[in-house]
Structures are given as C-alpha cells and as structure tokens.
Amino acid sequence: MKQFTKKTSTNGSDRHFRNVFDTYFAELCHFAYSFTLDFDLSQDIVQETFIKYWKAKDNFLENGTTRAWLYKTTRNSCLDHLKSKRTKTSCRVEALELLTMEISPELGSMEIEEIKAIIASVLRDMPELSSQIFKMNRYEDLTYPEIAQKVNLSVKSVEYHMSKVLAKLRVGLKEYYFLVFFV
C-alpha cells in the first residue's frame, strides 16, 4: 500500500511539473532572450531552470510561488551567464540588473511607470554627456569603444560617465529593490 501511495504522489507531482513546464517554458524563453539575445542559449538557460525546479518541485506543490521563483531563477542565470561571458563591460551587466525591473512580471504597470519616470529624471539631472553615453550604451547597444570613438573620448572616460549614471540610478531606484528582489 505504501508503494502505491508513493507512486500516485510521484505521478501527481509529475503532472504538476508538466503543467508548470507547459505553462511557463515559452514565456521564460522570451524573458531569457531579452537578456541573452540568443534564442538557443535562452532555451538552454530555461531548461536548466526547470532542472533546478524538478529537483525542488516538492517545495512548490502547495506554496504558490512557482512563477516568481522561475522568473527569478531564469533572470539570475542569465545575469550569471553575462557576467561569465564578459563580452561587454561589467557596467553593462550592472545596468541590466538595474533596468530589468521594468520587465519583472511581479511589478504592476504603476510601478513600471514610476521606475521609467525615475530613470528619465536621473538622466535629465545628469550632465548631458553622461546621459548621452548611457543612452548610447543601453538603448543603441553600443560598446564602450564605439561610444568613445563617437564622442571623441577615451574608453576610461566613457566608463567613468557610465559609473556616475549607474550610481545615481542605484540611489534613485533604491525603494524598488524590495519589489524586485523579494517578490
């Protein structure tokens, strides 16, 4: 009788896992793609996320935190990949960490608009060159050497301007860290 109960329990958790996988796999792949810009890599990262979920699935059957955990784990895996790859400077990764709050599935549209307003305000308050460099890096996806060449500065100067903007963003967005990291 014990073995039958265990087998039924396993089948129930297998069905639960399959349901979670079917519900979130494509959604998480698109989310991961927004970090990696590589669909195959995004799928690999999401598959690894589901392997971690499988190993800990019993903790989620009754908990109701599955979606948030999947997104957080996928996000962290993407950022870990970017950090290890180091094709862009560390400031680019730091900027992604700060700005991914805009796409967090747990934030409401009101919080997103507030975050966008804070980012716009910080950029307005920065020297024009710092703001321009940040926008070229974040929105035009230019590398530091490319930016340095366009604005006729050294790469170190570009790094300096980016670090100043990121420091101000950290201060401006500090109240939203709780929403992002503890939801």
Automatic annotation (TrEMBL):
The keyword Zinc-finger appears for this protein: no
One GO molecular-function entry: DNA binding
InterPro entries: RNA_pol_sigma-70-like (IPR039425), RNA_pol_sigma-70_dom (IPR014284), RNA_pol_sigma70_bacteroid (IPR014327), RNA_pol_sigma70_r2 (IPR007627), RNA_pol_sigma70_r4_t2 (IPR013249), RNA_pol_sigma_r2 (IPR013325), RNA_pol_sigma_r3/r4-like (IPR013324), WH-like_DNA-bd_sf (IPR036388)
GO biological process: DNA-templated transcription initiation
Domain RNA polymerase sigma factor 70 region 4 type: 119-169
PANTHER family assigned: RNA POLYMERASE ECF-TYPE SIGMA FACTO (PTHR43133), RNA POLYMERASE SIGMA-70 FACTOR ECF SUBFAMILY (PTHR43133:SF46)
Family membership noted in the UniProt record: Belongs to the sigma-70 factor family. ECF subfamily.
Protein name in the entry: RNA polymerase sigma-70 factor, ECF subfamily
